[in-house]
Amino acid sequence: MYLFIIVNLVPIFVDSPLIKVGFCVFVYKTTSFSIINIHDFSKDKDLEAGALRLEFQPTKICITQIYRSHSGNLQFFLSGLESIIKKLYKLNLHFKICGDINKNYLIEMHKTEQLNNMLISL
């Protein structure tokens, strides 16, 4: 027996002069969704982010993807991530943040504490 689930593939791109980056999410065809504009917080290599809002009545969920290059500015990343979290919080959404922050926890201990404190506060 085969089970086929009809889905939409939702591409979410981050505008970047250097490269086009983004992520895709498979969404069940009857699920209501929209893209949340968080491009204003993105900057090449420092913070590249995209967000998708999904509605499952009565719950509204946001899936947020973030990326930081190894050579990216960590302070810009932390500031931008904080701004994104504040925006999503104001929209009254349950949100999940996933991605790759390329953070070396063994070398940059002070900056690691800043990131940990921000994530713990969620």
Layout: helices, strands, pairs:
Elements: E1 7-14, E2 21-28, E3 32-36, E4 48-56, E5 59-67, H1 74-90, E6 94-100, H2 109-120
Parallel strand pairs: 5-6
Antiparallel strand pairs: 1-2, 3-4, 4-5
**How big is the Rg?**
16 Å
Instruction: Kindly report the average pLDDT value.
Output: 78
The CATH topology turns out to be Deoxyribonuclease I, Chain A
Q: Largest sheet at a glance?
A: 4 strands, mixed
Domain tally: 1
Topology pattern, helix = H, strand = E: EEEEEHEH
Strand content: 35-45%
Please tell me the CATH architecture by its name. 4-Layer Sandwich
State the shape. globular
Question: Alpha-carbon distance between the termini?
Answer: 43 Å
Tally of DSSP β-strands:
6
Indicate the percent of residues in helices. 10-25%
CATH class: Alpha Beta
Total DSSP helices = 2
Catalogue the unreliable spans: 1-5
Mind explaining what this structure looks like?
The chain has two helices and six strands. Strand 1 and strand 2 form a beta hairpin. Strands 3-4-5-6 form a four-stranded mixed beta sheet, with helices on one face. The chain has a two-stranded antiparallel ribbon with strand order 1-2. Helix 1 (74-90) runs parallel beside helix 2. The longest helix is centred in the last third of the chain and has 17 residues, at 74-90. The N and C termini lie far apart (43 Å). It has a single domain, classed as 4-Layer Sandwich (Deoxyribonuclease I, Chain A). It has 122 residues and is an alpha+beta fold. It has helices at residues 74-90, 109-120; strands spanning 7-14, 21-28, 32-36, 48-56, 59-67, 94-100. The model is unreliable at 1-5 (pLDDT under 50). It is globular.
